[in-house]
Design brief:
The chain is mainly beta and 1009 residues long. It contains eleven helices and 48 strands. It has a 22-stranded antiparallel β-barrel. A five-stranded mixed beta sheet has the order 10-15-16-13-14. β27 and β28 form a beta hairpin. The N terminus is likely disordered.
Length: 1009
Amino acid sequence: MKNLPLGIRKWRFFFTYFTVCVPLFTLFYSVAPSIQNLTVYGKITDISGMPLAGVHVMSVYTKKGVVTDFDGAYQIEVNSGDSLRITAIGYKSQTKVVNDKKQINIALIEDITQLGTVMINAGYYDVTERERTGNISRITSKDIEKQPVNNPLAAMQGYMSGVNIVQTTGVPGGSYDIEIRGKNFISGDTQPLFIVDGVPFASHSLEAYEVSANINSGNISPLNFINPSDIDSIEVLKDADATAIYGSRGANGVVLITTKKGNQGKARLNIGFNTGLASVTKFRDLMNTEQYLKLRNEAIENDNYSNYFNNPNFDYIWPDLKSWDQERYTDWQKVLIGGTAYRNNMQASLVGGNSQLKFLVSGSHLKETTVFPGDSNYKKSTIQNGLTYNSLNEKLSLNITSGYSFENNQLPYTDFTQLANTLEPNAPELFTDSGELNWENGTWNNPLANLERKYQVKSNTFYTNAVLSYNLFDKLEFKSSMGYNKYIVESSLIYPSSALNPTYGYGSDFSTSLSNQSQRNSWIIEPQLNWQNDFGNLSVSCLLGATIQESNEKQLVLSGRGFPNNNLIYTLSAASTLNILKDRFSEYKYMAYFGRLNFNYKSKYIINITGRRDGSSRFGSDNKFGNFGAVGLAWIFSDESLFKNSSWFSFGKIRGSYGTTGSDNIGDYQYLGTYELTGHDYNNVAVIEPSGVYNPNFGWEINKKFEVGLELGLFQNQITIQAVRYQNKSSNQLIGLPLAGTTGFNSLTTNFNATVENLGYEFDIQTKNINGDNFNWTSSINLTIPKNKLLEFRDIENSTFSNKYVVGKPLSIIHLYESQGVDPQSGLYQFTDFNNDGKITSLDDKGVIMDLTPEFYGGLKNTFSYKNVSLDFLFQFKKQKGKNNISTDAMVGAKRNGHVGLYNRWQNPGDVSPFQRASIGAYPGVTQASARQRQSDLSVSDASFIRLRNVTLNYSLPFHNAPGLDMNLFLQGQNLLTITNYDGADPEQTSNYILPPLRQITLGLQANF
């Protein structure tokens, strides 16, 4: 062709065009929708507006297609009049006519009929939602990202049946308590096993109680390091079938956290920013100045202290009545915890890749202030990376995940909540006219002096995990997971003399500084072999693996006192007195073999067998190994011919499981005879003392789990129902047996013949109420009814636990006095004498037993969407009892404020009142009666609530002329409304001395390029 003259080449081109191409184009035009080429772009989301990656968008006419990227975006070349076919696993397929539209955004509706294709992470293996035999609850990124939270546990509250999570404090960086199906063991850690991208994370804090007891009780959640926006899904494994493969580590359940990974498609940059405000949800009703002073003066008269009161030499005892302004009133709740906390969060990620290599890099920075006075703040910066490689022959794959975070939490020495609830309402001004702290001539301790006592904690967390897999043969795969994590905590507390009342003349020789330096290192290797084969209608899967894990911890806590000046207070070497409060190192070694055998016949009869043999360094040589296992069964009876043609019955499955897990959560070296430094010395020689008794005979705790469940899908799975009954029996309890002081030891760890039962019911219901082209509404509700009971405890009546536990009662019971109200004659609280010995004692007369375990709890979620707008909200509810105001406010007339109910007190003989006579504590029996009332049945009341846990309003901005640009504007709320009869600040975290969870409102913007 190239050698032909140019003119001949032109004539040949035109001849070919008119004789071949034109007829073909004419024929094509007669059958094709249009010959106009269009570039169509858009975004695929779910009905709540969350982007969906990996959705297949195909031209109906040309059969060519593309896949949406990480942000749900796509771009495809089609013809006008063509149609797009949109398909995704777990969602109903849709077809959209193109016409002349350039941008087509589509919201897909979940299709539970595709349960067989929705994969669930079960830890060592994946299983479809349809064919799983175990109980696994799941929350995905589309729900996590809608909550303005810093910790993944906060994002789970109210979403899962069988999972009870309580936020322990509203202070930034605080911790959460989590129980999966109740408390299984009398002593020891009840926290589940946390695994992040295959790497186990210890749940206990490395903070020292000596350093942070007044601000966070020495408890910091190690999971704070994760940016919730980086999480793809969280799975909670609950029953024996799901947890037995984790052996002793799965006794309290397993929480699997999986972060986001790279996605096939062109590189996309995602940038997000949100800012929010937070405040205390409710203030307590405290006495005003008039009421408070009335009780104070009455107390002096009742105690016959008028002579002392009128003596000027004793004026220093009651400045609130003598020298302070009698008309002044301050609601200290508004001053000390009534501020506004600000939260700013920025994050960015780059994601993309091809069929061989996918990548994700993300980073975030968070700054959050507190509701306290001062400039306290919490900062967190995170980096997350994910890299996935697949060879061309698809035999080799490599997945590498790593994350790093740095946290810097600067807080005051103490939680101001207790001061806010107890400071006298006529207490002086905080500052003098010159702007200095006001000490009112030394008559009070200015609460803002606590801002001089500074607490700071810095933590660094790094983890990485590599999963290498290779297909050795057609049906056999070798896989190995290798992980490492390092967690460092450095905290300090300074107590300078400038924070002390200057009246006493304390100098820097009274200044104190404490420091904590702790770190944890852990590595794990888990090689595995996976084999799968089909034999006609029978599919068989086999998994064999091993675990080798090692971790070590070290902690050094120092205290220094007396400094040349306060500028050197952070330099402990400058202290005149230096004490070692704690210096410890511990090492934990663990190895195991595990396996799984799964039989699946016709995709409707399924048997799943799992087992594990654990070895732990926490037991003596004769008890180092324990064997655990489970069997799970499932029958998908909706596939039987009897139900296949039903117009209303879509899916039905009966499943059950039975097995054992164990526990070695007793700490390291408990079976050895151990010694520790006391922090003191004798004649300049360091003193060590025995701390543990040698006992190599105790062994594994055992948790036997049984479950049966029913799963139903009705009306084309528009309604899905899951109902479960579970029963866990935990025996061979590892308990620290208290020893007499003459032995020189506090306790001896040993196995007790005690059994704890957790029995309960769980219900999960999902409904698709409206499925329209533009408007959709879905709902889900979960309900848990737990029952905890101590079934057996041999010879408990003669043990030291007789006053704490009762056979037949839950572990969470408390023993209380039975209040008989106020004696109309004496004006003192009266109590029932249960043993009729004529006196009230704590050992024999706490005859009332109350259970603080929730009777039931759950959550109700609704999602509405209309075109580009979506609205989500979750109500959390809980039926329970809790400590009320009387547990802290039972003394009437004390030099501290209290609940306004105290004003309704006894005044004269014959009065019938709920509160006893006013007293400064000098009247015989009044102080003891107050202490008992705080431990009486009246100190516990209903603490049930319905809480609007979170709300999200999202708007996806349309950009018709900017292909590839997606932008979402959202408004989020957390803890917006609580409906309760509880008279305290918060019905879930019932202490009046701890900052409750805050109400948060957040505005944010997410842009994807």
